[in-house]
Amino acid sequence: MLGLGAANQELTSALRVAESSERATPAQALAVYDQARTASSERIIQWAALKKGPIDTLNQQLKAQGLAPIAIAEIEREVYELMTR
Fold it and tell me: pTM higher than 0.70, yes or no?
């Protein structure tokens, strides 16, 4: 099972093969793309569930104790910027 970073790398690699080819995209590149897309989708669903469950609960507990919550939006923005460079 691929992690989100590995899935992103494989999606990027498959896209490069498809974009650089002057012929039909090789079946192997399409297979890599399908596998990476599935893994990426699964990880995104898991991340959404984590944010709505344990992280939300933790943030509520942190706020109740007068502490700063985990800045999920900021973390996601940083990750997006790093992954799209």
Answer: no
